[in-house]
């Protein structure tokens, strides 16, 4: 009956992904069937850790994230956990031999969210690496299914894609981070006086990440390429919408891509994929 426990655990990770992120879930469904569940398993762990530091304000978040980190590595070592999110995550880590240092870096960044509200250039880069770039690298392990040479080649692009996604999230969520969580991720900025020039400098940095990421996406195996490309296009569309707005606007509202626009992105990407012109 062990296969039933595996299935139930992985269903929890899939449901977690679908409940928290409709956009990411729709992109995962475009991956080859062999790749979908491992990515759900990674997202489930990432989502739960993020909830601890961003949502559980009435609880001892430092103890919770410390315990979650400890239980994660115990699950990986033992090859089992009664926590279904951790059990499904360890299945993926052990199946694809994901580097444990990536997981440590991820938890380091989660713990930074409990300790820091202002970031300098070093801590900003460290945070982005651990909170986003390593997630892209964990997914890359899955996409390449053990091809170490391809991993080393595509590693910079995977990091760029994770960084682009995270920086767009920072811009989209400026209001909540600054007003509700008292966080300022972008170094040297005072969001009470956020200027057009400062916004443009951030956007130029993000555009470079998107450009670097695209080169790697086009070199992914066919099993992974379309799903990753659609996720890239979702975020690129969100980024372009943010670029058209004034700094004061993003300080007062959370920017979204309407569902009908997401459908159009998917349809256009599908046509490009069929014509092999992505």
Mean pLDDT: 92
**How far is it from the N-terminal to the C-terminal residue, by CA?**
44 Å
Q: What proportion of the residues is helical, as a percent range?
A: over 70%
Number of helices in the DSSP assignment: 13
Give me the count of strands: 0
Oligomeric form = single chain
Strand and helix order: HHHHHHHHHHHHH
- What overall geometry do the principal axes of the alpha carbons give? globular
Computed over alpha carbons, the radius of gyration is: 19 Å
How does the helix and strand content classify structurally?
Answer: mainly alpha
Task: Please give the largest β-sheet.
Answer: none
The poorly predicted ranges are none
Strand content: under 5%
Verbal overview:
The chain is mainly alpha-helical and 278 residues long. The chain is built from 13 helices and no strands. 38% of the residues are buried.
Give a quick summary of the entry.
The protein is mainly α. It is 77% helix and 0% strand. It has 13 helices and no strands.
Chain-wise SSE layout:
Layout: H1 2-20, H2 22-28, H3 33-54, H4 61-78, H5 84-96, H6 100-115, H7 121-144, H8 148-172, H9 174-180, H10 196-217, H11 222-243, H12 247-250, H13 259-274
Helix pairs in contact: 1-2, 1-3, 1-5, 2-11, 3-5, 3-6, 3-7, 4-5, 4-6, 6-7, 7-8, 8-10, 8-11, 10-11, 11-13
